[in-house]
Amino acid sequence: MTASSVALGPLDTDTGVRLRGVEKVFRSRRSTVQALSSVDLEIRSGEFVTLFGPSGCGKSTVLRIIAGLERETSGEVSVFGTSPAEASKRKNIAWIPQSSALLPWLSVKANASLSNVVNRRPDRNGTTSRTPLDPVQLLGEVGLSDFLGAKPNQLSGGMRQRASIARGFVQGAELMLMDEPFSALDELTKDALQLRLLEVWSQHRKTIVFVTHSVNEAVLLSDRIVVMTPRPGRIQGVVDITLPRENRPELAGTPEFTALVDEVKQVLRTGWEGER
Ligand SMILES: Nc1ncnc2c1ncn2[C@@H]1O[C@H](COP(=O)(O)OP(=O)(O)OP(=O)(O)O)[C@@H](O)[C@H]1O
């Protein structure tokens, strides 16, 4: 069964994201690249899951398939019980890229509100499962209350990324896909943004699938870390982050935190060695 043949009933927000036996082969006249092999993954609604693995192992491809931007070659994919294409049509998936994609001629507030304007049209079947949130409130939550009227070129890179995160949440999408959203930022800005993201996420509890190359970032943010093998990407193991949510940032560097970092690295190493 392919994504398009998944039943399109009412949105099932308890199911989250499910991938079963997903393969992805990129074929062109000159080459064939098997990017993913037998990927099985279940993400519960409201979970924060990070995909972690070596460069080129297929993390972004998994995200793009979940987003409906790329079709799996075989296997099954569902998002809240519907196909990714349908979830996307219902504006239930927000994509937050590495560098913010704000429109330069619009103010920060207008940029954050934009998704509301675009999404105001009822869905194809007349139902709306999303509850768009107040852009001014969200911009306040990411610390941009004083910059509502500013244009993107008047903001720093970190501020633009904060606006981009706020915009993602404003959409009211149940699923947020974040592809290395902090990788272009300096360490201090990254630390601050991670905390902001945790705060906003704990307020709104959306399902997040996050990609990072930083194991510390993964442990800090996630409920579970999915460790992938080198290409073709398979799931080598899943590490449950058992640290409490309330004071997670304060736990960085503690023996418990470090033990989880080591566990993720060990699973990664096993995946590398298995490929040799
Ligand atoms: N459109 C495409 N056409 C052909 N090959 C592709 C395409 N997109 C991705 N690939 C290949 O699929 C593999 C997985 O790529 P992907 O970008 O998903 O990896 P990644 O784990 O996100 O990498 P990185 O961590 O470096 O960003 C790579 O070998 C890549 O070259």
UniProtKB/TrEMBL annotation:
GO MF annotation list: ATP binding; ATP hydrolysis activity
Keyword Zinc set for record: no
InterPro entries the UniProt entry points to: AAA+_ATPase, ABC_transporter-like_ATP-bd, ABC_transporter-like_CS, ABC_transporter_ATP-bind, P-loop_NTPase
Sorted UniProt keywords: ATP-binding, Nucleotide-binding, Transport
Gene3D superfamilies named among the record's database cross-references: P-loop containing nucleotide triphosphate hydrolases
Domain ABC transporter: 17-255
Entry annotated with the keyword Transport: yes
Database matches in SMART domains: AAA (SM00382)
Record SUPFAM superfamilies: P-loop containing nucleoside triphosphate hydrolases
Source domain of life: Bacteria
PROSITE patterns found in the cross-reference section: ABC_TRANSPORTER_1, ABC_TRANSPORTER_2
Name of the protein described by the UniProt record: ABC transporter ATP-binding protein
Organism for this UniProt entry: Nocardioides faecalis
Lineage: Bacteria, Bacillati, Actinomycetota, Actinomycetes, Propionibacteriales
